[in-house]
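Hi support team,

I'm opening this ticket because the web form for multi-chain structure prediction keeps timing out on my end. I have pasted the exact lines I submitted so you can reproduce it. The total is 353 residues across two entries, so I didn't expect it to be a heavy job. Is there a limit I'm missing, or should I split the entries? Thanks in advance, R.K.
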Amino acid sequence: MSFFDYFRSKKNSTASVAKERLQIIVAHERGQRDQPDYLPQLQQELLQVIRKYVQINDDQVQVEVDRNDRCSVLELNVTLPEK
Amino acid sequence: MARIIVVTSGKGGVGKTTTSASISTGLAKRGHKTVVIDFDVGLRNLDLIMNCERRVVYDFVNVIQGEATLNQALIKDKRVDTLYILPASQTREKEALTREGVEKVINELSETFDYIVCDSPAGIEHGAQMALYYADEAVVVTNPEVSSVRDSDRILGILQSKSRRAEMGQDPVKEHLLLTRYNADRVERGEMLSVQDVEEILAIPLLGVIPESQVVLNASNQGLPVILEEQSDAGQAYDDAVARLLGEEREHRFMTAQKKGFFSRMFKGG
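Hello R.K., no limit was hit. The queue was backed up. Here is the completed structure from your submission:
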């Protein structure tokens, strides 16, 4: 630590940047880990069906499975383009 | 019935073999009959850390393939009476470890040993999966550094889905976090993730914190498990970890920086 570092705030420390980045990537990867294997294909096929009617990009359809104790919910989010 | 403990991490170079050597030595020192198995087929290294590299005749794969008996392959440690080493093969492919073969060896060891410590290879592929498959407990070795923490989380996912306990729907593998190469000074300066940060991200119970120490390299240079350096911080930290693994309550040490005077902080740096 140099003389001037001593007065510098700890808020922007590289450790806190590391923690924040890790929290985001780990949460994302855990989300994917619990998903059933068929999900990517399901997402592709849903895209194809929707594209018969509306033009959308790949990232405008999001498919997720939420598991509770008693049931699983398939959540489908489609962002439609503005007219 | 032996307790099977895997030492794993995902990432390489974080201290799996160092940890396997010290934990198995620590367990044996407390009188438990312990065997440590090197699962890193092709890149044998545990023998070197345990100082028995010149005594290897037969290895793990020889036993699996019926070319040697377990008794021929096991190497008795020269320092601790109740400790044995089963070295990895250097010449075979990782695929030489089959689930049935590993099971056969582990079952046979279970009859006479109290603890079986499995030193996993790096990665999340076949060798690592074989090492963790039969585990009852897992010591996840992690450095306070982004890629290591992320890889540890990946290996936790595999423990929770691809271990025998997971596949059979039994109680899950008991997970322990072992944070190694910890530098409390750098943590204090905001340059390194803290114990609390890593615990928060991985959300598994802390087994111990091993401080970054020159003793570790000095010990491995000589083929001495660092836990036998009883005067050193790293050696004592490993001893604490082994005690906790056996259910003893011990306060965590070596987690705070050495207090420095105002002037040395201002002018000496680091």
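A quick check on our side: Chain B has a mean pLDDT of 93. Let us know if the file doesn't open in your viewer.
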